[in-house]
Amino acid sequence: MLIKKQTGIEIPSSEITPEHIYRTRRQFMKSAVALAGGVLLASCAPRAEETAMEESTAVPPTTTPKTEPATTTAARATADELGDPLNTFEQITNYNNYYEFTTDKEEVAKLAKDFPTSPWQIEVGGMVNKPQTFSIDDLRAFEQEERIYRLRCVEAWSMIIPWMGFPLAKLLQAVEPTADAKYVRFETILDPDNMPGQRSPWFNWPYVEGLRLDEAMNDLTLMATGLYGKELMPQSGAPLRLVVPWKYGFKSIKSIVKIDLVDKMPVSLWMDSAPNEYGFYANVNPEVDHPRWSQATERRIGELGRRETLMFNGYAEQVAYLYDGMDLRANF
Ligand code: MTE
Questions:
Q1: Is the pTM of this model over 0.70?
Q2: 231 CA from centroid of ligand 1 (Å)
Q3: Ligand 1 mean position to 138 CA, how many Å?
Q4: CA within 20 to 30 Å of 40's CA: 29, 68, 100, 114, which one?
């Protein structure tokens, strides 16, 4: 495995639905589900053109990898460990999911352009011996690596992204989780003044995600601070986001301000919004369809046709053991 490490990181630095329509939040959620069925997460659904792709144009299936994920120098690498080319910087930063701004993937970059990401603090606490608040400067102490990961969105599109960051395990080790800690809960900033999407009542903001502690400690789990050797841009979740490459992209929570070690399974924003469609684990699994579409294939951004989705997004060798004995249909 090729690894590039560096000691410092280059971080220099409305769709508003009128409230009166809904008497209470509970009533609102009920009416949203009743009205929409699938509309609630329509924006987390594949676009018509994606689902309409002809199977006949599909790219030949890729086999389960026997190699380590690429962790090489992004500037030099042009492909992941399976030999597929990286997506371009333009593709990665102009086709985004970031509901705090908009549900239109091609508008996120424009709307997030001036989002203030400095100063910024990340509070890490809960069941730990050494709770700490980190500034972005403090994060420079964690040795940075470049890692090339596939990102597979639950909407059945994917990209290959050369991230820069450090293993979440390093951050967790610094705060010393207690023996009672079983899960890690992550929270995005709550800033409706600067995030127009957070003024929408469709979701219980802020965005929340969670991992089991052993998933969080897995070496693949990355705190990303940059991509393509540059610091993260707001649309990608600046200044700090999670990247969990074997799980659907929605687990990779952006613009994190709070991390808590807890003993109960956290309820994520998606579990809260549509528990029948989104579970806690969200492991990429071509054998378990989303209730509204197949997960067997995906569209790689920049490619025509579709390619087969790989179990655990191609990272089974590194992570399958985490789920030994678990029913992956029940724990979706
Ligand atoms: N994090 C926050 N805070 N808000 C979001 O809307 N969208 C998720 C995830 N992280 C999201 C988020 C989804 S659905 C995906 S697929 C990825 O971010 C997309 O990451 P990208 O825009 O960098 O490709």
A1: yes
A2: 17
A3: 25
A4: 114
